[in-house]
Amino acid sequence: MRYPVVLHTDDGVRYGVTVPDLPGCFSAGDTLEEALVSAEEAIELHLEGLVEEGHEPPAPGAVATYQALPEYAGGVWALVDVDVSRFEGKAEKINITIPARLLHKIDAAARSRHLSRSAFLAMAARREITDDGGGAA
Description:
The structure is a single chain. This protein is of the alpha+beta class. It has two domains: 1-87, Double Stranded RNA Binding Domain (2-Layer Sandwich); 90-137, Orthogonal Bundle (Arc Repressor Mutant), CATH 1.10.1220. It is 39% helix and 15% strand. It has helices spanning 32-52, 63-67, 100-112, 117-131; strands at 2-8, 15-18, 26-29, 76-81. The protein has a four-stranded antiparallel beta sheet, covered by helices on one side. Helix 3 crosses helix 4. It is elongated, with a radius of gyration of 17 Å. The model is unreliable at 132-137 (pLDDT under 50).
């Protein structure tokens, strides 16, 4: 999942990072690059804590939604890619039937994103479950 983060700086060098989708998740770095690495680590630790408490990792919100909020005014926005699969439990092998043309489209889409077929299908299922209000995956 790609979580939006907002970075603020007072001196143009050191950055504080806020993760709007994860209340209480903050980070910082002495450079922009360090701040983003620290943000990824903070997000992973925050998600790990949520899962240990029995919660699902929340789906990332849209940057445009957060940009309109006054508490994030003047911030620099970035997306931090976090692999949430480790919080979903052990992988299970399944056998499914899909029409050949659809399977070719799935494989092409997976290749274009540098994903395996399984990773692509899991990502699509996660997105569909989250988007339709059926609960976070």
